[in-house]
Amino acid sequence: MAEMRHFVVIGLGTFGAALATRLAKNGCRVTGIDSEEERVDELKDVLYEAVIGDATDRDALEHMPLQQADAVFVSMGEDITRSLLATLHAKELGARRIIVKGVTSEHGKILSRLGVERVVYPEIEIASQVADQFTWPNVIDFLPIDPEFSFLEIAVPDSLIGQSLQEINLRRRIGVWVVGVKDVMSGKLEMFPDGEFRLGADQMLLVVGRHSDLNRLRDLK
User: Fold this and answer.
1) Which listed residue, 26, 30, 49, 146, has the most CB atoms within 10 A of its CB?
2) Structural domains in the chain, sorted by start
3) Contact 47, 30 (CB under 8 A)
4) Quick check: pTM over 0.70?
């Protein structure tokens, strides 16, 4: 059995609480800290370890399992100074991976200089996802894997139904690679289908490609 993953969440506001809850639901151990007792108490049935304390005070973090944690998440609301202090302390106390909720682009730049692994902007990222879903309703999922490339899960466009992968030749036509085809009704996934594979109406394409080429695929009717 795989070892249970352990995460530390610093700051249990709206984002931090949602993050801690989801991690726990995914079967992870979560240690959480917040200066407000009420926030900590609300998550007492979710957290593996609950700590009431001010994360801007280095002493409050010294006895937390920062070095052993698979990752440390910092979510200190809109207070940039508090966020930076908590991040600095976590870094100095040996946290291996630090992910921080960003407030502004300047905040993000400073965090990058501190060596955090990732800066997350929840409102911007969610807004982008919602906008894309309504712009391209046939897109099921979108996963960036690189500044230039992404995975895309998309319903088979009507114009491609009944044709084989060799006939539509998306690699030459658009510049994307089909890595799988999933049947919506049965849930069966055909990985790396050959050129003779014929597309049906109740199927989804799993493709990888450059963002500009994926946009061309999304525009197919």
Assistant:
1) 30
2) 6-124 (3.40.50.720), 131-218 (3.30.70.1450)
3) yes
4) yes
